[in-house]
Q: What sequence folds into this?
């Protein structure tokens, strides 16, 4: 028996990523208790065949089925009927149930009787008759592992039996490697080939088996294992604790555990030395480019040297693409394992010599070939890190800087490089735990020097992502900036990065007193602040007063937005409060696609999701906004990134509020507050007030809506250095009007007019005019409403436009301009229905009825029938289960359940969970009718 397929967990444990395979096996054997069935599992070594056999066998036993098992054993492959002996040992006492000829044949075959060798057909028939007699008493499952290692006589009997199970209560399940020849004749039998685990299952398995491993290392392992469960379980075991936790760099080619070495190393060790040498170069080169391999081989015949490896199916060579690829992802690792340190160093030197036109890769190979500190190579690696970061490869930049630090002869340079790696880890890659360790390493490397700007910025980001507070992070970073030796040189990358971080801290603080140090630093930059940094400060600090200054610069930046993830995100950040996110939508979508593919840093992926979800909210694409926000929240949980969570929760809370799901909106707002308050993050806390005000407006609680809106920004002023004040301005004016606070409403509308809101975007201009119309008591308001609505093209900002139409229709109806009122109200109602904004549908419907519009002419609530999954979720929710409980039953995330409920409520014409039971009952009655 070959134990390399054996699982590293008890058979009773859940098999990660194999639910569909288990379901296929169950469905294949469904009814086999009466009809009989046979199935052959196949797959590459380590794919998990034995684990599946164990799971199926355990399940069969629980259901009362008797299980007989046998496994091929290499050293018994030449012993006739050795496998049959192993299978039938539990049935030796039952042989007497057979007639004498079959009994004696079977006893001789399995070695417990004497006599001449039995006829093969007689033995096969005897085995089949015995199994059928046993199955007559209780259903029987025959499980065979490592089928190719069974002896020829046994495979002949098993093939005979497997084809004659119809009408019996016997199931036959066997497993074999894909490339194994063996003696078993599988023709005519159903075969199910096990595929590698998908990315999600691979990540889950790694998190389950190695929970303390760094996420960066986990992703590296997953990439190398290619979904092979054995590799996923064993590759981390070959790393030491410091490598698993990313305290030191992981080797470019992963080492193999003892079990993996048994599987692959022997195949490599038998190759001729020249083949092993060239395969080592190929494994360390990584791309399989034959042109590079030929250059590194210094004129030797590469194809000829690889002939034996190709013949042994270790590699494949493609002529048209001129590429070499290893047949199994771990063969390259096996090649490296068999090489000596001197062999590896020579291979790296050869590759460095061949890659003179590729400085990044050349620097890396020089670093791997270095025997000790080498500032020249360290500098090359630092330059390579810059190139990788500009390309969006944050993890590669961290690895290059870490290696550069290890080669730095001077402690100060080692500390500086580790600090920069830590900053990239916190600001870009999302590897917070790894960044914390790198930062500690930087301090240990040279404890005598003042902390660098990169170290201070990394510390600040770590503080607010953990249990620290904004005030401490702000004080730490400002102190480092003001005490630094940078001379406020605008070309100092560390200084510019620190100032971008300071902008973020100031925004989160929501405190006007936090901004002056930033503006002092910007004024001192020489020759001047970079355009993107300056624009970000103008548009993200107090855009209601300064945002218009940056519009020209923003246009130029957008014209050259490019694909650098950091640049895309920072330009998009400038567009949030100037409301031009549609201009960066294409770049943000590309960044999200890269993030999903694992080729963009997680923090940039998250920021792009924030920007897109806000963009889609204002564009009326609410389902997509909620879905994108949910995707981001999953990443926040996975990477422990609450820094972003509040912004994503805010988008979901807005949609829930607008759709009348007050319970969900309130819960999300409470999550925002619970994170923001302990950290002094007032800028994040006001997001909850905004969502709460909108929810209260929708439910008709205008007094509560006024309290929320006034907490966000006092009536009569747009709170300085609190950009969200612009977004909540319409809610404040409406709530003030509806609660009889005419003076406060007028004062706030005036403040909006006096600000630069109208210059920032057409939507904000529309809202300024709408608020002016709301606070104009005379018929002069009509012209203001018309002017406001003229700014919107068809399809623009559907929720905001519909709200303005609702205000306009209400005013027209009260002035008895009935026909025009109905026209505005019908358009508003249509938009609200399309959005699923149930509370506003109710209000628009009531206004239309009051205008004398016939009830029959009104559109019915809802947006089509429930899907099967929506019906299942609604039914479970109606029983009182929470979103988390429903998610556990349906194997979904609780946020996905929330997203579905957002879509279900408007379809049923309800706005709360409490109404689900009656709505579903009514739906059932309609079906009966």
A:
């Amino acid at each position: 028996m070959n134990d390399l397929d054996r699982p590293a967990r008890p058979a009773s444990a859940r098999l990660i990523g194999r639910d569909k395979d288990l379901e296929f096996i169950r469905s294949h054997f469904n009814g086999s208790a009466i009809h009989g069935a046979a199935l052959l599992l196949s797959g590459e070594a380590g794919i998990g065949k034995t684990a599946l056999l164990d799971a199926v066998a355990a399940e069969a036993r629980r259901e009362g089925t008797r299980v007989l098992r046998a496994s091929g054993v290499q050293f018994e492959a030449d012993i006739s009927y050795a496998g049959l002996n192993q299978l039938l040992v539990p049935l030796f006492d039952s042989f007497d149930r057979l007639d004498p000829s079959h009994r004696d044949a079977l006893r001789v075959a399995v070695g417990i009787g004497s006599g001449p060798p039995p006829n093969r057909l007689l033995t096969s028939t005897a085995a089949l008759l015995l199994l059928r007699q046993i199955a007559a008493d209780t259903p029987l499952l025959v499980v065979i592992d490592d089928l190719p290692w069974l002896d020829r006589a046994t495979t002949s009997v098993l093939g005979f039996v497997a084809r004659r199970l119809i009408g019996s209560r016997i199931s036959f399940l066997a497993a074999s490697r894909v490339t194994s020849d063996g003696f078993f004749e599988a023709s005519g039998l159903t075969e199910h080939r096990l595929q590698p685990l998908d990315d999600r299952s691979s990540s889950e398995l790694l998190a389950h088996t190695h929970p303390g491993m760094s996420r960066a290392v986990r992703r590296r392992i997953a990439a190398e294992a290619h979904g092979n469960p054995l590799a996923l379980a064993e590759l981390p075991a070959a790393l030491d604790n410091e490598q698993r936790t990313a305290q030191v760099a992981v080797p470019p080619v992963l080492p193999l555990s003892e079990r993996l070495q048994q599987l692959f190393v022997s195949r490599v060790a038998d190759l001729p030395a020249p083949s092993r040498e060239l395969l080592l170069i190929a494994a360390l080169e990584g791309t399989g480019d034959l042109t590079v391999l030929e250059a590194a081989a210094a004129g030797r015949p590469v194809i000829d040297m690889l002939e034996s490896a190709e013949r042994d199916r270790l590699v494949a060579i493609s002529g048209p693409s001129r590429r070499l690829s290893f047949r199994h992802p771990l063969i390259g690792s096996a090649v490296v394992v068999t090489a000596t340190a001197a062999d590896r160093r020579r291979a790296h030197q050869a590759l460095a010599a061949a890659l003179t036109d590729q400085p990044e890769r050349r620097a890396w190979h020089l670093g791997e070939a270095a025997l000790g500190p080498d500032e020249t190579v360290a500098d090359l690696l630092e330059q390579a890190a810059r190139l990788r970061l500009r390309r969006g490869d944050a993890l590669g930049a961290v690895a290059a800087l870490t290696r550069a630090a290890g080669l730095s002869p001077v402690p100060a340079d080692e500390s500086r490089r580790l600090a920069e790696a830590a900053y990239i880890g916190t600001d870009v890659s999302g590897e917070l735990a790894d960044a914390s360790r790198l930062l500690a390493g930087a301090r240990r490397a040279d404890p005598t020097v003042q902390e660098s700007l990169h170290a201070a910025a990394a510390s600040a980001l770590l503080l607010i992502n953990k249990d620290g507070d904004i005030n401490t992070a702000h004080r730490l970073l400002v102190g480092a900036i003001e005490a630094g030796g940078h001379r406020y040189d605008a070309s100092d990358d560390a200084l510019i990065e620190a100032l971008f971080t300071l902008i973020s801290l100031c925004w989160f603080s929501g405190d006007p007193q936090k901004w002056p140090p930033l503006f002092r630093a910007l004024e001192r930059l020489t020759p001047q602040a970079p355009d993107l940094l300056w624009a970000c400060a103008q548009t993200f600090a107090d855009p209601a007063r300064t945002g218009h200054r940056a519009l020209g610069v923003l246009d130029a930046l957008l014209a050259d937005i490019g694909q650098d993830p950091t640049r895309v995100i920072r330009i998009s950040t400038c567009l949030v409060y100037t409301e031009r996110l549609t201009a960066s939508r294409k770049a943000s979508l590309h960044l999200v696609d890269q993030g999903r593919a694992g080729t963009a840093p997680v923090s940039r992926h998250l920021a792009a999701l924030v920007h897109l979800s806000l963009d889609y909210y204002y564009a009326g694409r609410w389902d997509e906004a909620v879905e994108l926000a949910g995707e981001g929240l999953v990443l926040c949980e996975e990477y422990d990134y609450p820094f972003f969570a509040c912004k994503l929760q805010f988008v979901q809370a807005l949609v829930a509020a607008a759709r009348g799901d007050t319970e969900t909106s309130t819960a999300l707002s409470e999550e925002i507050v619970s994170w923001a308050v302990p950290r002094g993050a007032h800028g994040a806390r006001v997001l909850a007030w905004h969502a709460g005000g909108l929810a209260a407006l929708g439910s008709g609680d205008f007094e509560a809506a006024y309290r929320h809106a006034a907490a966000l920004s006092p009536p009569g002023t747009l709170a300085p250095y609190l950009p969200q004040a612009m977004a909540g301005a319409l809610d404040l004016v409406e709530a003030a009007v509806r609660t009889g606070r005419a003076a406060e409403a007028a004062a706030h509308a005036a403040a909006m007019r006096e600000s630069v809101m109208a210059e920032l975007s057409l939507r904000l201009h529309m809202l300024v005019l709408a608020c002016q119309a709301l606070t104009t008591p005379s018929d002069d308001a009509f012209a203001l409403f018309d002017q406001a609505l003229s700014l919107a093209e068809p399809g623009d900002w559907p929720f905001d436009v519909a709200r303005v139409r609702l205000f306009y229709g209400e005013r027209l109806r009260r002035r008895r301009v009935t026909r025009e009122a109905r026209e505005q109200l019908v358009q508003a109602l249509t938009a609200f229905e399309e959005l699923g904004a149930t509370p506003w549908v109710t209000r628009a419907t009531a206004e239309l009825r009051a205008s004398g519009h016939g009830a029959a002419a009104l559109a019915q609530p809802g947006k089509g029938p429930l899907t099967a999954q929506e019906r299942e979720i609604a039914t479970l929710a109606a029983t009182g289960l929470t979103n988390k409980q429903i998610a556990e039953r349906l194997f979904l995330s609780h946020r996905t359940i929330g997203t579905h409920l957002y879509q279900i409520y408007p379809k049923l014409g309800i706005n709360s969970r409490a109404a689900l039971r009656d709505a579903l009952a009514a739906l059932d009655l309609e079906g009966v009718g």
The mean pLDDT is 86.
